Amino acid sequence: MFYYRYKADNARRTLRGIAQQVEKAENAVAGRVSVKRNRFVKLTGGDKTVNRDLEAKARALAGIKGYVTNLTDEPAEFVIDAYHRLFEVEKSFRMSKSDLRARPIYARVRDSIDAHLQVVIAALAVSRRVEDTTGLSIRKFVKTLRRYREIIINVDGHEIAAADTLTDDVAAVIEAIKQRAAAGH
After folding, report:
1. Per-residue pLDDT tens for 68-80?
2. Closest by alpha carbon to 138, among 85, 184, 92?
3. CA distance 153 to 168
4. C or N: which end of the chain has fewer Cβ atoms within 10 Å?
5. Per-domain residue ranges for the chain?
6. What tens digit of pLDDT does each residue of 45-98 get?
7. CB burial class (10 A; 0-12, 13-18, 19+) of residue 27?
């Protein structure tokens, strides 16, 4: 089963890219630049021409995205939404590799490997929760809050608390987290 969707914004970007590629093809045909790998240059024997048929086909399909599925009972919206959720899964894997520094470990004991994976998955779950709650990427969240500290100093048995003053945006982020926790989410 195939589903298709048109988006004007994607069409605008695609048409701009096609125009740039055709311009490069025209320069290659004119001999101003080397041919390299331009899909709009048609080589016939020793002749170089711009492939206008391929250009017309590409322009006609600009902005159309196809989705393939073997689910015959599901509506198009469900299939398209499922594809878009895949992008979120891919985003999570990219986040786990970069922001969470989830790199391969060289452990020989199965328990150590399992523990490492569980810590990474837990960190991923917390990170996604923070992103959903605050609307900030985890990288921006950590960067924003990293400079704020709260310490307790013990002087002759007396504890003194000290903390940095929070800016309005940081206070708003913390308040959003508190509200979500209070609501039981």
Report:
1. 999 889 999 999 9
2. 92
3. 26
4. C
5. 1-68
6. 888 999 999 999 999 999 999 999 998 899 999 999 888 888 777 777 666 566
7. middle
